[in-house]
Request: fold
Amino acid sequence: MTAVGDPGPFSAHLGFRVVRADADGAVVEADPGPEHLNGGGILHGGYLSALLDSATGWAVHAAGPEGMVAPHVQLNAQFLKAGVAGQPLVCTATCTSVGGRICTTQGEVTQAGRVIARATGTHAVISRG
Reply:
């Protein structure tokens, strides 16, 4: 299992930092820059989705047995407010159930104290560790 603080190569490329990942959930932070904006000048939904994907993934892996492999099979994101570059993002996520074949998660992204996106996810357990 990747050590907490090392988000993996893709998430590191996007600048994500794993602050916490334990049985209570995960917290992942990011500092979006101008390269994370869409053509309209707001944070790209793909960037926010990747942050939610990473945080919910950390939450499910922290809740399961060490070495468990449980990739997303579904991520349902909802974008509530426009995010901007230059202000930190905090994504908090929890694992709401761990089963033998399926785990479920939820997460939300805040910026300046406002919820700007949230998601629910389903993960397939392909290895119990």
Summary: The radius of gyration is 14 Å. The first helix runs from residue 9 to 13. The longest strand covers residues 114-124.
